[in-house]
Design goal:
The protein is 37% helix and 16% strand. The chain is α/β, with parallel strands linked by helices. The strands form 2 sheets. The protein has a 7-stranded parallel beta sheet with strand order 3-4-5-6-7-8-9.
């Protein structure tokens, strides 16, 4: 039985016609090391997904590229048939190679294939939200998303996609994509130490578009900051709790998708993100990335 979403930190946000909890869950870490292969403990991975739903989380982020195919299959095993209020966001625009790399794959053929892989892996007839990944593993890169986005719009017209988002993009690329179709969210690297998207976060908020930061504590190379550690110690909280709470207080359009392979850690993240930071705390933390 799910709990009320009002008990989750941050409340809710509307992604198009779908309302989701601002505190979501990112499934990437459920795959094996470096997001390749199956998890060491499949039952624990299934338990995390079920715990997320039990906590009232209604936004789960995944991709057929994770594993590849591993996280989608875990989600289907754990949660299908899906709760009516659960939004599952997927991502297209990159494949995996034998070395664990993320080669770009944004041709019309590749995008159609990836959409169908996500549909099949999740066991659904329509994807709730598809994020188009631009750039590469190093971050956003020059290039227009218009042609790739137009392919996704065609798939939407065929009834295969409900809503669109963008990932790993610049403000200019967001504007180009919005000229082709409706964008409900942008998913980029953003945290206390990486504040390059500050203006974009605010501009999207003004337009009612969600901003979904990934790697809230640095990802594969965790953020090291004496300031963060000091604030966390003063508040009797973990660094992750402070980082997540800061993101939730940064702007009402910020949606969190922190990942973990532990149900206990998931519950700690939910509890920790509810931490209320004072103006003084926020000012001190803001100094990290400025």
């Amino acid at each position: 039985m799910t709990t009320s979403t009002l008990s989750l930190p941050g409340g809710t946000w509307a992604l198009g016609d779908l309302t989701v909890t601002r505190f979501g869950y990112g499934a990437m870490q459920l795959a094996g090391p470096w997001v390749m292969g199956p998890p060491a403990d499949p039952e624990a991975a299934l338990a995390v997904l079920r715990a997320a739903v039990e906590l009232g989380i209604t936004h789960v982020d995944t991709s057929a590229a994770y594993g590849p195919h591993v996280t989608n299959e875990l989600i289907r095993t754990a949660l299908h048939p899906y709760p009516e209020d659960l939004l599952i966001a997927t991502k297209v625009g990159a494949d995996r190679d034998g070395q664990g790399g993320w080669p770009t794959a944004r041709s019309a053929h590749d995008l159609r294939r990836q959409v169908h892989e996500n549909l099949d892996g999740l066991g659904v007839d329509r994807l709730d939200l598809v994020n188009l990944r631009m750039g590469d593993a190093e971050g956003p890169r020059p290039g227009s998303p218009a042609e790739a986005f137009a392919t996704l719009v065609e798939l939407q017209q065929q009834g295969l996609i409900r809503h669109f988002g963008l990932s790993n993009v610049t403000a200019e690329q967001v504007a180009e994509a919005r000229a082709v179709g409706t964008v409900v969210c942008v998913q980029n690297l953003y945290n206390l130490a990486h504040r390059h998207d500050d203006d974009l976060v605010d501009a999207l908020a003004a337009d009612g578009i969600a901003y979904v930061p990934f790697f809230p504590l640095g990802g594969f190379t965790p953020l090291q900051s004496e300031t963060l550690a000091g604030v966390a110690a003063r508040l009797g909280a973990t660094r992750m709790s402070v980082a997540l709470a800061w993101l939730l207080q940064r702007s009402p359009n910020v949606l969190l998708i922190p990942g973990t392979s532990s149900a206990a850690h998931l519950r700690e993240n939910v509890a920790g993100a509810g931490l209320v930071l004072s103006d003084e705390d926020v000012a001190e933390l803001d100094g990290i990335g400025r």
